[in-house]
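Quarterly update, task 2.4: zinc ion-bound model.
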Amino acid sequence: MSQCRAMSKRSRERCKKHALIGKNVCRIHGGASTGPKTEIGLSNMKESKTIHGMYTQSSLRELREFQGMVNEYKKHLKDMANV
Ligand SMILES: [Zn+2]
């Protein structure tokens, strides 16, 4: 059994309880949590954890599309210069 990885804010000491099986923390420090269950809860969690949204899948997809357009434009300009 591993030890709980939670740290006390006041004493700065590590929790001395055993972590739950397959988890890194004990029951008191969130090991019993199963995460959000409903779609609303999941969206609330995503919203609270998103800082600026620069690395979300949709924004990365947009960035890749934009980079592809820029590369095509560069290729087109190079072809025009060679002709
Ligand atoms: Zn703990």
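Highlight for this quarter: Residues 4, 6, 15, 17, 25-26, 28-29 surround zinc ion (CB under 6 Å).
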